[in-house]
Amino acid sequence: xxxxxxxxxxxxxxxxxxxxxxxxxxxxxxxxxxxxxxxxxxxxxxxxxxxxxxxxxxxxxxxxxxxxxxxxxxxxxxxxxxxxxxxxxxxxxxxxxxxxxx
Length: 102
What we know:
The protein has about 100 residues and is mainly alpha-helical. Helix content is about 45%, strand content about 10%. Keywords: ATP-binding, Helicase, Hydrolase, Nucleotide-binding.
């Protein structure tokens, strides 16, 4: 779902001063496991909940990727989100609160 360095590695302090995320890391809707999960959610909770689940997976990846560079209160990095969809209120609301403020 994310890039090779979006999970599992910390780039604190001087190891990273800029995060660039191009596009939105949505999962592959043609993946068999993903289709099964989405079908289950739709049956149990409705289309809207499945839609929210899809967006939440994407935004969790975005927030985790941002968090790879900023590990403590004195750490800093420029965060560049290269997709106009990040400015849409439903998507922007899913960014970590400290990212939305800045």
